[in-house]
Specification:
The protein is built from no helices and ten strands. It is mainly β. A hairpin with a 5-residue loop joins strand 1 and strand 2. About 20% of the residues are buried.
Length: about 130
């Protein structure tokens, strides 16, 4: 998604009565205690493409993980941008420096990860909703 903030990934997010996150893309897995929200909170989690990483199969190393398939790769000078279609139907953009590009053909399964500090919460109402 292009906007005044540049390229970003947006994930629909809400919280149940217990404050546990409920991602619109049900394929997002969270490490225990990675995120706690105000009960009933609703909004969007924004993550910049350069803050999402490719993870090796079976590796931990991220607060949030998501699986998908590589659908496109774009060379942008000193960086490479990847389009990923997730199993839950979300399109995710990942960006890496050219010298650290992913060595996988289009169509390959990939696993993505990012940390809690990489998320910016955008509430439908006032406040950020983090507990």
């Amino acid at each position: 998604m292009a906007s005044f903030m540049g390229e970003v990934n947006l994930f629909g997010l809400g919280a149940g009565a217990d404050g546990a996150p409920r991602w619109q893309d049900g394929g997002i897995a969270a490490a225990p205690g990675a995120l706690s929200l105000v009960p009933g909170w609703s909004g969007t989690a924004m993550v910049r493409p350069e803050l999402i990483h490719f993870l090796d199969r079976g590796a931990a190393g991220a607060d949030f993980t998501l699986s998908g398939r590589l659908v496109a790769e774009y060379a942008l000078g000193s960086r490479v941008q990847y389009a990923i279609a997730t199993e839950g139907g979300t399109e995710v953009t990942v960006e890496r420096p050219f010298e650290a590009r992913l060595e996988a053909p289009v169509g390959s399964p990939v696993r993505l990860g990012w940390d809690r500090g990489s998320i910016h919460l955008i509430a439908e109402g006032a406040g950020d909703g983090a507990a």
